[in-house]
Amino acid sequence: MVYITSWQEYQEAAENLYASAPNKARYCVKWRSSDGKLVLKITDDTTCIKFKTYSSIFLNRFEALNLSLMQKMQNKRPVPIAQALGVPDNTKDADQARAASPLISQSGGPTAGGVKKKKPKKKK
User: Fold this and answer.
1) Which domains does the chain have, with CATH numbers?
2) Backbone dihedral region of 55: left (phi > 0), alpha (psi from -120 to 50 degrees) or beta?
3) What's the mean pLDDT when you consider all of the chain?
4) 88 vs 61, residue with greater confidence
5) Contact between 63 and 45 (Cβ < 8 Å)
6) I want to staple 37 with a disulfide (CB 3.0 to 4.6 A). Which of 13, 14, 32, 74 is the partner?
7) pLDDT at 69 over 80
8) What distance in Å separates the CA atoms of residue 36 and residue 34, rounded to the nearest whole number?
9) Cα-flanking dihedrals φ and ψ of residue 96, to 5°?
């Protein structure tokens, strides 16, 4: 396990490690609020890269790295079986039928399972 001290080096190494083995790579985030410590770890079982900071300045950079990795992870997903087999997608038709149905309430009021707020009492 290697702690990298430079954020730029860690970000490049993390993205390269994920790109080299997307199916084996694991990304872990640890936050210790008592210490104010953030530890980021990415591994593919042979290489482990870690970054540790106590500074809140890195939170924006951390969010950008998370966004980048999540976008890469979403693009690597396999095609759904139904789409690969050529089965038509009926979810849009079902949503339109549900929206037009008079039996299902479309409002977010108490009939939809919400709780109606009580009016505050007037002070004398």
Assistant:
1) 2-74 (3.30.720.10)
2) beta
3) 77
4) 61
5) no
6) 32
7) yes
8) 6
9) -65, -40
